Every structure is written in structure tokens, then in C-alpha cells.
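User: I've been trying to design a sequence by hand for this structure and keep getting stuck. Would you show me what you'd pick, starting by listing the structure so we're on the same page?

Assistant: Good idea, let's start from the same input. This is the structure you sent:
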């Protein structure tokens, strides 16, 4: 257990350092930033749970997506696939959802800043590479993610939403609001 927890911290340090070095920061600043990431309260608080293993490679995912936006090559796609594989195999699907959403925003930012001018082909290639990385990672880890489709209809939340939420009115007319005259 101790070795596994140490390995999670090391993974967080390594991924954060690699991402910060890609930002063209000095090595000392990267080391301090990596230490701040690896020893942050979020990573350390969840260290014994799948959350820490899932969140540790998040900077590596950001690195891969930045390289896709900047370089638009297979190596960048491979980095992103490896980062996604690390996140998925950690076993915490909610964190995967949060990381992909945040990384998507980062990717759009990188597309806007890394690609000067109106290089439509370059942007399209970058988006296709990012989608390909996601599809490859999904294909390689489908055996971990597909059981969720079987388990979801058996949950209390699913039955509540199907029985009650689906049959209620979802919006309010403006005349029913208290603050309207």
C-alpha cells in the first residue's frame, strides 16, 4: 500500500513537471509547481482512494492536448491516449468526466492561442487528433467503462429520475414567478 501511494505521488510530480516544462518555465519553477500539485490537499486527501490515481495524471492530459493543438502530430495524440488510459484505469469515472470537461476547455484555449491566424486545416486536424485520441482510449478501456451502462438502470437515482423527474414539469412560466409583475 505504501509503495502504491508513493507511486501515485511520484506520478503526480512527474506529470506536473512535464506539463510545466512544456510551458517554457525554468526547471526550478517547474519543480516547485510539481511539488505544489503532488502535495496539494486534493491529491493527498484522496491518496488512498481511486480519486488520487485518477487526478494525478491530469497535467499530463493537459500536456498532450496542448501538443495536439501546437504540433498536430501522432506523438501528441499518443501522449493524450496514455494520459487518458492512466485516468480511466484508475477506476473513478466521475473524475474522468470532470477531467475531460476541464481538458476540453484547456484544448479550446490552446487552439485559440497556439494557432495564430485562420489556419482552418490545422485546427481541423488538431480537433480530429484529439477526437482520435479519445476514441482510441475509449476503445482500449471499453471493458472498464461499458459495465456502467448495465449498472446505471439498477441505481436508485435512475429509478427516481425515471419515475418522478421525467413526469414533472421542468420549467416555470414567467407569469408564475414571484419577481415578475
Amino acid at each position: 500500500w505504501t509503495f502504491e501511494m508513493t507511486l501515485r505521488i511520484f506520478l503526480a510530480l512527474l506529470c506536473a513537471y512535464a506539463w510545466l516544462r512544456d510551458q517554457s518555465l525554468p526547471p526550478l519553477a517547474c519543480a516547485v509547481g510539481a511539488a505544489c500539485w503532488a502535495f496539494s490537499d486534493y491529491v493527498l486527501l484522496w491518496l488512498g482512494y481511486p480519486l488520487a490515481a485518477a487526478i494525478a495524471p491530469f497535467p499530463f492530459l493537459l500536456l498532450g492536448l496542448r501538443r495536439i493543438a501546437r504540433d498536430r502530430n501522432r506523438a501528441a495524440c499518443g501522449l493524450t491516449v496514455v494520459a487518458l488510459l492512466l485516468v480511466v484505469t484508475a477506476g473513478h469515472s466521475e473524475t474522468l468526466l470532470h477531467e475531460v470537461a476541464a481538458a476540453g476547455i484547456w484544448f479550446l484555449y490552446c487552439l485559440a492561442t497556439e494557432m495564430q491566424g485562420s489556419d482552418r486545416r490545422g485546427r481541423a486536424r488538431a480537433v480530429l487528433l484529439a477526437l482520435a485520441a479519445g476514441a482510441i482510449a475509449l476503445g482500449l478501456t471499453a471493458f472498464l467503462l461499458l459495465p456502467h451502462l448495465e449498472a446505471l438502470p439498477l441505481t436508485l437515482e435512475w429509478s427516481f429520475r425515471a419515475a418522478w423527474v421525467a413526469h414533472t414539469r421542468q420549467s416555470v412560466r414567467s407569469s408564475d414567478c414571484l419577481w415578475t409583475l
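That's my pick for every position. To get oriented when you compare it with your attempt: The two ends are 63 Å apart (CA to CA). The chain has a mean pLDDT of 89.
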